[in-house]
Amino acid sequence: MNNRKILRKPNFLGYLRPFNSLALSMIGIFGAFTCVVTMVIAFPIPATNGFINIGDAVVMITGLLFGPIIGGIAGGIGSFFADIFLGYPQYALATLVIKGLEGFFVGLIANPKKNYKWNYRDFIGVIVGGLIMVFGYFFYEIMIFGVPLALYEFILNSIIQFGLGSVIALTFIFAARKNIKTSLPQVFDKIYITPELTE
What we know:
The protein has nine helices and four strands; from the N terminus they run αββαββααααααα. The strands form two sheets. It has a two-stranded antiparallel ribbon with strand order 1-2. The protein is mainly alpha-helical. It has helices spanning 3-8, 21-40, 55-66, 68-86, 89-110, 120-145, 147-183, 185-188, 195-198; strands at residues 11-12, 15-16, 42-45, 50-53. The protein has one domain (20-192): Arp2/3 complex 21 kDa subunit ARPC3 (Orthogonal Bundle). 75% of the residues lie in helices and 6% in strands. The model has no long low-confidence stretch (mean pLDDT 88).
């Protein structure tokens, strides 16, 4: 396939839309991974009938590896099903949107198609994505429980989900992303247009 044909493929800022089987498989795999990690490491919060988890680490990792499209879709869907399976359906739709935006903006800012070595954009992307998650749930819970309970979970979300998730995600990306990218070029060729083809 020549460069001109690749560049004509439907894409969003160089990230191919997930119409091929490999991209859909990555969404399924990382969506399931997000769901499982969220469910396995979950700490209930009786006051708000919610829970704290480290699924955000996987949402962030997915965005940092594959960019905004797969990061957003897998992060949102995987987290949505975790809420359903764990018995928190009142959070599921909000989670779909919040975690979807988290994965999307982490991937958009980090821009791994061009920056697959660890760099400052990873850090900024994780910070922005984490803030979207923390404030997204805060405003959602204000509407349901009021400010005091929403503030209580806001603190826990900031310390555990945002703080711990960020550390895990950045540590993993620092250690593994370059090796993953170079060892699996056939995977990433079907996920985004490499910088060499746009020059």
